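Predict the 3D structure for this chain.
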Amino acid sequence: MATARHLLGNRTFLFLLIAALFMHIAIFLVTPIFPIFLEKARHLHASQIGFILAIASLMYQIGSLVGGFLSDRVSRKLVMVSGAAIQAGAMFGFSVSQTFLLFMVFSAVNGSGMGLVAPAIKAKIADVVGQEDRTTAFSWRGIAANIGIIIGGLTITLLALSTNRIVFIYAAGVYILLTFFLLFALPKARQEKTKKDSLSWSQYKGLLGHRSFLFFCLVSLLVWGLYAQFPLVVPLRGQHIMGTGAKVGLIWTINSTFVVLFQGVIARYILEKISPYWAMVSGTLFLGAGLFAMGFTHQFWTFSAAAVVFIIGEMLAVPVFDSLVGHFAKPPLLGAYYGIGNVVTGISGALGNALGGYMIESLGGVGSMRPWYMYGIITLISVAILTAFAIYANARHKNKESSSSLHPKKERAR
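Done. Predicted structure below.
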């Protein structure tokens, strides 16, 4: 608890948690019902809805790269403020859009804004906490994000906003509050004032030659590919089991509540005590076990239990991924590294969804056992590869920490 009190006593870190909370309230006022709104209220076809969501994902990747580099060269605060304001504009755009083309345009705007904010917040967190506290710090960010998910999800459920345009106005209002909060409450770090002059493009080119980091990103595709299966299989399997999609949204509420209650415990008693690489291996095992178990469930509560197993994997793997990106990053380029990290999660998520959907369809659909057995096989292969990587990387990780403690004033070799 001492570490938690120490972190929460850091005013800038606390403000960043509040920003993450507001951001996820706004996101989850819209995300769970956006496809339903497009289908029921605007009568768009499934393929059109897919294009609208895909353009947001594509622009999110581009925004992450641009936002990461700009947060290093200009100001993390300015990038966050700009991204939140852009998302507010996108929500207002959705509220008045009538055509497929306009929804495409504002979906692209929304994805760009989100891409600007996400890496800048992560880089700012890495700026204001010590390296030894980063895993715990990102665990707390996860808690704040999931509180926002709960608030957003319950709001649209209680107010029955699934096909009402007013939900976009509410989301825009939250983004406007976030914009002003970041602008007036978040202090500007002193080191950012000279950052623009001190960085050269050759330093950014060097990032692409950072083999250890790129190797880490490559193996992380396995983790995020499994993680991306959740929003794909939960609605499909839930609909198959329960015959209705009405209760599927409760799965997200249950999981987010579980994260809020237990992420701090897992961070304190597990993540702070084991290697981050082994935490990723363990998290991947739980992700896969949760997916595998979903194939054997036939009731809401057993299905929810399988989803909780999956979410334990998220609580183990996601915070250490963000922490390890900060470990590999060279301090002046934190934003760029987190931008690349966001692109990795986006690419693996897109590939995971595409391949997962194809696999499920090819193996008989969610009512067949074959896709779930395949998830089990994929999990075992992924865990084996990640275990080999953990054995290789853990020794190097310890050597760097020892070198850093012996030569604290020297730049760490990577």
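Residues 370-406 form the longest helix (37 residues).
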